[in-house]
Design a protein that fits this description.
The complex is a heterodimer of chains A (about 425) and B (about 325). Chain A is an alpha/beta fold and about 425 residues long. Chain A contains 14 helices and 18 strands. In chain A, the strands form three sheets. In chain A, strands 1, 2, 3, 4, 5, 16, 17 and 18 form an eight-stranded mixed sheet that branches. In chain A, strands 6-7-8-9-10-13-14-15 form an eight-stranded parallel sheet, with helices on both faces. In chain A, strand 9, helix 4 and strand 10 form a beta-alpha-beta unit. Chain A is globular. Chain A starts with a strand and ends in an 11-residue tail after the last strand. Chain B has two domains: about 140 residues, Aspartate/ornithine carbamoyltransferase (Rossmann fold), CATH 3.40.50.1370; about 150 residues, Rossmann fold. In chain B, strands 7-6-5-8-9 form a five-stranded parallel sheet. In chain B, helix 1 packs across helix 5, helix 1 crosses helix 11 and helix 2 crosses helix 11. The longest helix of chain B is centred in the C-terminal third of the chain and has 32 residues. Chain B starts with 15 loop residues before the first helix and ends with a helix. The chains are: A alpha/beta (about 425), B alpha/beta (about 325). At the A-B interface, helix 6 of A face helix 4 of B.
């Protein structure tokens, strides 16, 4: 099968390419990227005034399967991903059961094989049951194809155990992703500690609970000479620590999520539980610091931290509602709206943070349009505005922080492994991936 | 001005004019309670539902009396004996009350923001009778009403609020209301009971009770809640009383006509001495009386605003 994409503005950060040209895919690979390709193809897409980029890689996604199929499944989550231009996700291991041994990894691999619409890579747990007590068999996980480990949602409290996890991961070439939060400090908090928590009469989550743990995770990574990736950075102090660590040559990378550069604690004042996530929306100054860190390269990647929850778990009293928001379908548009349109990032810079950078961090040969690369790419109408509404969301859950907002950028096509996966057709899912 | 809100959820979102309207309406309702027949027909045919998720006597009875003096029918739902115990959500309970064609829900809930959430999901009026640590608007309104009655105006008054500010909805509502009307608010408590960023709400902070009383026209004393069952509670209580308790000796050093308020129920000998609570400066019982007028005013205003909304919808 050949697909020819004609006349689009091709953004390909891995080769620093930003120009109008054609792309030809043959079967599951990129066959040619150049001007004036006139080969016969099975399908031709006119991409004039469109942007063509590698399929996005979202390195922080909760697909909820196995265990909470009422919130999301591998199928529903990866369909939502495609609508958002994402052709590759990293599935977080905080499922039921947690992805903490070979049997559970294989269970998830089967689910992916049978029902995923995109590429799905697996993040395994660091500790058994994510209880922070006993390490998983990291080498065995690596052998099963797990690309990173994390107890996401929780941090490994024991310094000794975390150090051991980092050392073992270093030997196995495994990446450790840190949910950096000291629960002894964040306790039962639900919103950013300060004027906001005071004004709302809610328990606060201090920034300290995040950055003190970021500091520890970086120190342990240095000690173990291991690579470490800090997930969902939300505040200025964490960024300062990461900049310093990078300067020192410590192998640290980090990501933030669209809500941390688009929204601030002021958006939570109406007690809207779709503004409740962990870490919480921080101050305007933190938001500015996140934006600056995106611009100066301190933040390597943008990931959605897609965290679906049912209405029953969200549409209740604020302090009782679950933490987290869905984000697969809004990640690209929120990034275009807040970063490209406002001149914070060039197209090349933005696309790098959602394609080649996460690919490099995870050690995947993806996120590029070089000839011979996997034929995962998307065609985006960058100026088109759309209103984020519950009814339009493909995800099983509708707990989106951007509901009611107008965002720029619509994904017109998502090509995954050389097939047009989006717009959806009946039975478009490729079997036996 | 005309009142346009279907709900009263807090004082943070109200303008000075709206607060003044509630107060002036309350003034005209206060006289009703002095009549031989203590009733006006303002809410005749309306149904007010008291939905209380937290134990409360004072606020609940005050709302009930206020509604009855306006000729409304009043139903009380105590959640410990209702289907809430069977797991019904606040929103479902609210919708059921709406289906009963009630007009106003007065809600008390232990979660901050609960009243606002309920108001978003029902078309009838919602009056916040206290939500978590967030707001207790009618308490602050009756405090302000009592102040205004005595001092004539709020502008320029010095009001000190003493006690557990961090966990107090009364303190928050008072700070919003008083500062909007031009009073100066000083909060006084041990450091651990002062929440971060309180200054941004417009209040000043002190940890020195004598400073808090020195220039104050009014001291509003909050109820202290210590864990009762632990042995440590006693010395803690005594220590608190020693450092922050409102005693006659401290009142003597303050302005001669300093007004002493307390939202009740009082812990005698813990945050306030009996001598002060029952003394000449205390307006604690006047607050209770004024609470009825203020709540009549609030019930009347939200009901008439909702009535107008419905009429407008009909003519559209």
């Amino acid at each position: 099968m050949k697909i020819l994409i004609k006349g689009g503005r091709v953004i390909e950060p891995a080769s620093n390419l930003d120009e109008v040209c054609d792309i030809l895919t043959q079967d599951s690979a990129i066959a040619k990227v150049s001007r004036g390709i006139n080969t016969e193809a099975d399908y031709t897409i006119d991409a004039a005034d469109r942007i063509v980029m590698p399929g996005l890689i979202d390195m922080h996604v909760h697909l909820r399967e196995p265990g909470r199929e009422d919130k999301e499944t591998v199928a529903s989550g990866t369909r939502a991903a495609l609508k958002g231009g994402i052709t590759c996700v990293l599935a977080m291991p905080n499922t039921h059961p947690a992805i903490d041994n070979v049997e559970h990894i294989r269970l998830l691999k089967d689910l992916i094989k049978n029902s995923a619409y995109t590429h799905v890579f697996i993040a395994g747990a660091i500790t058994r049951g994510r209880l922070g007590e006993e390490l998983v068999d990291i080498a065995a996980a690596k052998k099963e194809g797990v690309v990173a480990i994390t107890d996401d949602g929780l941090s490994v409290d024991s310094d000794a155990l975390m150090l051991e996890a980092l050392k073992t991961s270093q030997q196995s070439g495994m990446l450790v992703i840190c949910h950096s939060e000291d629960k002894k400090l964040s306790k039962n908090g639900v919103v950013n500690l300060g004027f906001t928590s005071t004004r709302m009469g809610l328990r606060g989550i201090s920034k300290e609970s995040e950055y003190k743990r970021v500091k520890r995770d970086i120190e342990l990574a240095e000690k173990a000479d291991a690579r470490v990736h800090i997930a969902h950075v939300s505040c200025k102090e964490s960024l300062e620590l990461i900049v310093a660590a990078k300067k020192k040559g410590i192998k640290v990378t980090c990501e933030t999520a669209p809500h941390y550069f688009s929204l601030s604690e002021e958006d939570v004042l109406g007690f809207d539980t779709n503004m409740k996530m962990n870490p919480p929306l921080r101050s305007k100054q933190d938001m500015t610091a996140i934006i600056e860190a995106l611009a100066n390269g301190t933040i390597d990647a943008i990931a959605s931290d897609h965290a679906p929850h049912t209405e029953n778990e969200k549409d209740i009293e604020f302090e009782r509602a679950e933490f987290g928001v869905v984000g697969l379908e809004t990640m690209l548009a929120a990034s275009i709206t807040e970063l490209v349109e406002k001149g914070v990032l060039t197209w090349l810079d933005l696309v790098a943070k959602i394609t080649v950078n996460p690919a490099r961090i995870l050690g995947l040969s993806k996120g590029t349009l070089k000839e011979g690369a996997d034929a995962d790419l998307i065609v985006v109408s960058p100026q088109e505005e759309w209103l984020v509404e519950k009814a339009g969301l493909v995800s099983k859950s509708k707990n989106c922080a951007f509901l009611g907002r107008s965002l720029k950028g619509i994904v017109e096509y998502a090509i995954c492994s050389g097939r047009i996966a989006y717009p959806f057709k009946n039975n478009s899912r490729k079997k036996n991936r | 001005m005309t009142w346009t809100r279907k709900d009263l959820l807090g004082l943070e979102e109200l303008s000075r004019e709206e607060i003044e309207l509630i107060l002036s309406t309350a003034e005209s309702f206060k006289e009703v309670s002095t009549r031989e027949i203590k009733k006006v027909p303002a809410l005749r045919g309306k149904t007010v539902v008291n939905l209380f998720y937290e134990p409360s006597t004072r606020t609940r009875v005050s709302f009930e009396v206020a509604a009855k003096r306006l000729s409304a029918d009043v139903i009380h739902i105590a959640t410990e004996t209702s289907s809430v115990r069977k797991g019904e959500t606040l929103i479902d309970t609210g919708r059921n009350i709406e289906a009963l064609k009630a007009d106003i829900i007065v809600v008390r809930h232990n979660c901050s923001g609960a009243a606002a959430m309920l108001a978003r999901h029902v078309n009838l009026s919602v009056v916040n009778a206290g939500d978590g640590w967030h707001e207790h608007p009618t308490q602050a309104l009756l405090d302000i009403f009592t102040l205004k009655e005595k001092f004539g105006q709020i502008e320029g008054l010095q009001v000190s609020i003493v006690g557990d500010i961090a966990h107090s909805r009364v303190a928050r509502s008072n700070i919003w209301g008083l500062t909007k009307l031009g009073a100066k608010v000083l909060v006084c408590a041990p450091e651990i009971l002062i929440p971060p960023g309180i200054e941004e709400m417009g209040a000043s902070v002190t940890h020195d009770i004598d400073e808090a009383l020195h220039h104050a026209d009014c001291v509003n004393v909050l109820r202290m809640q210590f864990e009762r069952d632990t042995e440590a509670a006693f010395p803690q209580q005594l220590e608190y009383f020693k450092q922050f308790g409102i005693t006659q000796e401290r009142i003597r050093k303050a302005k001669r006509n300093i007004m002493v308020m307390h939202p009740g129920p009082i812990n005698r000998g813990i945050e306030i001495s009996s001598e002060v609570a029952d003394g000449a400066n205390s307006v604690i019982l006047e607050q209770v009386t004024n609470g009825i007028a203020v709540r009549m005013s609030v019930l009347y205003l939200v009901a008439s605003a909702n009535e107008r909304v419905k009429k407008n919808e009909d003519t559209d």
